[in-house]
């Protein structure tokens, strides 16, 4: 449920940004929508985060510290993953204004924009080393390595959950909603060629 409220809040923020763009367009008194003008206004949004995932995982790592000993760590990780599109990647060629009321935008492919650990909710659950080598010190970098491995695992899980597809659909819906009040009743999103 809280994820839905977050998405609604994000939508309202993007809608507010759209209103600002609308006001700027109207003040500029565009009589005809031109691709460079649309591009300038769309690029102002920069990274458009359209999906936020919160993922909790248990991540472990084990390393051999010498030929006869090993050390392991177990983390409970809470991570945030933001998916969306980087509008700064768009060029003039990505926007084509067609007949009155129609525009075609080739958006950048959705990607994971940010992944970070929620440090308040991430903790070491267990850390051990072999009992027969008590003189071997703990590896100071093991927790850092475990956190990095956990971030990669969280990224894989977000991709498996379909974050990119959801981010692309949400970006298209939001941009369509921003352009509709400007008189663009038909907004098309052709896929970017590989």
Q: Short summary of the structure?
A:
With 194 residues, this protein is an alpha+beta fold.
Pick out its properties.
194 residues; alpha+beta; three-stranded mixed beta sheet; 4 helices
Topology diagram in text:
Blueprint: H1 2-28, H2 35-43, E1 47-66, E2 69-86, E3 95-97, E4 102-105, E5 111-117, E6 123-129, H3 142-160, H4 163-179, E7 186-188
Parallel strand pairs: 4-7
Antiparallel strand pairs: 1-2, 2-5, 2-6, 3-4
Helix pairs in contact: 1-4
Overview of the structural elements:
This protein is α+β, with helices and mostly antiparallel strands and 194 residues long. It has helices spanning 2-28, 35-43, 142-160, 163-179; strands at 47-66, 69-86, 95-97, 102-105, 111-117, 123-129, 186-188. The strands form two sheets. Strands 1, 2, 5 and 6 form a four-stranded antiparallel sheet that branches. A three-stranded mixed sheet has the order 3-4-7, with helices on one face. Helix 1 packs parallel to helix 4 (163-179). The longest helix is centred in the N-terminal third of the chain and has 27 residues, at 2-28. The two termini are 37 Å apart. Residues 27-32 have low confidence and may be disordered.
Radius of gyration: 23 Å
Q: What general outline do the C-alpha atoms trace? A: elongated
In sequence order, what are the helices and strands, one letter per element? HHEEEEEEHHE
Largest sheet: 4 strands, antiparallel
Structural class: alpha+beta
Query: Uncertain spans, ≥5 residues at pLDDT below 50?
Result: 27-32
Helix content class? 25-40%
Strand coverage percent: 25-35%
- Let me know the number of strands: 7
Query: What's the end-to-end separation, in Å?
Result: 37 Å
